[in-house]
Design a protein that fits this description.
Layout (H helix, E strand, L loop, with lengths): L1 E10 L2 E11 L4 E5 L6 H8 L7 E6 L2 E2 L5 H8 L2 E5 L10 H11 L4 H14 L15 H13 L5 E5 L7 H18 L2 E6 L2 H7 L2 E6 L2 E7 H6 L4 H7 L2
Helix pairs in contact: 3-4, 3-5, 4-5, 5-6
Length: 239
């Protein structure tokens, strides 16, 4: 379970996230949706401990984590995986090298890295791309590499930051299907940040709607989108 209590984050005179209370059940696929500039990415950065809040508290289970520093913070971050819209892959490395990178940083032996990379390639269904260079891959294949790399260290949470925004509809459905399969197989918590209502409807169990830095609605996907209570949500539903 991830818990946010009174989270506020400011940049100069701009309040990007404002007094957010949010509980994400462990083992769920949870969506956070909002238009561009609503504060989604900032909230994700705080939730994933890439930045600390100016006010408020972040909990993983019963442990408060926003106050962690040094090795304790690094250990906690290793329990999280993250995938992005632009893949964030290393152009100097092939597919296997990209997936191996976090394992090398963690100090695993070469044989253990090789075995884990092969396991992950099978998991995301791109075993035949082991030695491929990035320029040889489609967008969907690159995102599969990014997903494999995010899962390399067996994280407890997978954060997806607009992970399908640059993909065509067919590839988007394939990637969402893969994320759902991984969620079921690995029993991992998935937090999905997006501005696309179709993505939320396709995969998420619960959703929070973010507008101007604050949560304006939260509940099951069916309840929130079938009976939107705020103008922000209605705008997303009818977009």
């Amino acid at each position: 379970m991830i818990g946010l209590k009174g989270i506020t984050k400011q940049y100069a005179a701009v309040t990007a996230v404002r007094d957010v209370d949010l509980t994400i059940p462990g083992g769920s696929i949870f969506g956070i949706i909002g238009r561009s500039g609503a504060g989604k990415s900032t909230l994700l950065r705080v939730m994933s401990l890439l930045e600390g809040p100016d006010r408020g508290e972040v909990f993983y289970g019963s442990d408060r984590v926003d106050t962690l520093t040094g090795r304790e913070l690094l250990f906690r971050r290793r329990k999280m995986g993250m995938i992005f819209q632009n893949f964030n892959l290393l152009g100097s490395r092939n597919v296997a090298g990209n997936i191996a990178y976090p394992l090398e940083i963690a100090g695993l032996r070469r044989k253990a890295i090789h075995d884990r990379v092969e396991e992950l390639l099978d998991l995301v269904d791109i075993r035949d791309k082991y030695r491929a260079r990035l320029h040889e891959l489609s967008g969907g294949q690159k995102q599969r590499v990014a997903i494999a790399r995010a899962l390399a260290a067996n994280p407890e949470v997978l954060f997806c930051d607009e992970a399908t925004s640059s993909l065509d509809p067919q590839t988007t459905r394939a990637i969402l299907s893969l994320i759902r399969k991984l969620h079921e197989k690995l029993k991992i918590t998935v937090v999905l940040i997006t501005h696309q209502m179709g993505v939320i409807r396709e995969i998420c169990e619960e959703v929070a709607v973010l507008d101007e830095g604050g949560i304006v609605e939260q509940g099951t996907v069916q309840a929130v989108f079938n009976s939107p209570k705020t103008e922000a949500t209605r705008g997303l539903v009818h977009a």
